[in-house]
Every structure is written in structure tokens, then in C-alpha cells.
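Figure 6 in text form: structure in, sequence out.
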């Protein structure tokens, strides 16, 4: 069994993907789990980890819904505002979904190179650890 550790899907009309513009040509379209599966299956890939492509909690819920509908989605790495005062509670709530495996801040889009080191993240990171979630940093 081979697992794809990182793939994306998106639905343009959700409006979450500011980076995804018509200038990106071939990928400027809806990308479904079934589209990925059609490409992956011939190569022996039997499942994968669906990773967020937008910095919104709505994106995380969208991906978890995709996981519910598609058993080939073995895990989800979502997004959550880790600086929000309720981040620990939101983390615990999201972690109730058995396929949520981690959270990913979009560090590449954050101008402060020290952002990840700020003490204000401690409560959210501790909540992630308590829930058995990983921090996925690009």
C-alpha cells in the first residue's frame, strides 16, 4: 500500500483561494478528491492526506466533509487561526473528527519570519499536542 502524504482539492466557488487565479491556467478549476484518485490509483496509491490550500476554518470543515465522503482520504491537515483566543477550544472541537491529523499555518504567506516563535501560540500548540495533532509547517 502506498500513501500520498500531501494532496489538495478545492472548489473555486467557495472563494477561499485568493492565490488561485486564472493566470495559473491548468489548475484554475475545481480539483476534487476523485480527480486526485484517478491520477494516483494507476501508480498504486491507495489513500492520501488531504492538506488545506486556504487559510480559513471553513476550508478545514470543507476538507473534513471530503474525508467523510471519500474513504481514500486517510487524514486531513487543516487550518485554524492559532492566535485566536479560542484556538485551544476550536482545536479540541476539530480534533473530534477522527481523520483530522494536524493543522498548518501558511507560514509562506506570513511576512514575519519569527511568527512561529511567538509566545502567544503556546496555548494553541499545547492544545494540538494534547489532541495528538501535528503542526505541519511549509
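Output sequence:
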Amino acid at each position: 500500500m502506498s500513501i500520498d502524504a500531501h494532496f489538495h482539492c478545492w472548489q473555486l466557488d467557495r472563494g477561499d483561494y485568493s492565490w488561485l487565479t486564472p493566470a495559473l491556467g491548468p489548475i484554475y478549476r475545481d480539483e476534487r478528491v476523485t480527480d486526485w484518485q484517478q491520477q494516483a490509483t494507476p501508480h498504486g496509491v491507495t489513500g492520501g492526506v488531504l492538506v488545506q490550500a486556504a487559510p480559513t476554518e471553513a476550508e478545514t470543515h470543507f476538507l473534513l466533509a471530503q474525508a467523510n465522503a471519500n474513504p481514500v482520504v486517510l487524514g486531513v491537515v487543516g487550518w485554524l487561526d492559532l492566535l485566536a483566543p479560542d484556538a485551544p477550544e476550536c482545536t479540541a472541537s476539530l480534533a473530534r473528527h477522527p481523520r483530522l491529523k494536524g493543522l498548518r499555518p501558511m507560514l509562506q504567506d506570513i511576512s514575519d519570519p519569527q511568527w512561529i516563535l511567538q509566545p502567544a501560540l503556546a496555548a494553541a500548540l499545547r492544545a494540538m499536542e494534547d489532541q495528538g495533532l501535528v503542526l505541519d509547517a511549509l
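Caption detail: The mean pLDDT is 96.
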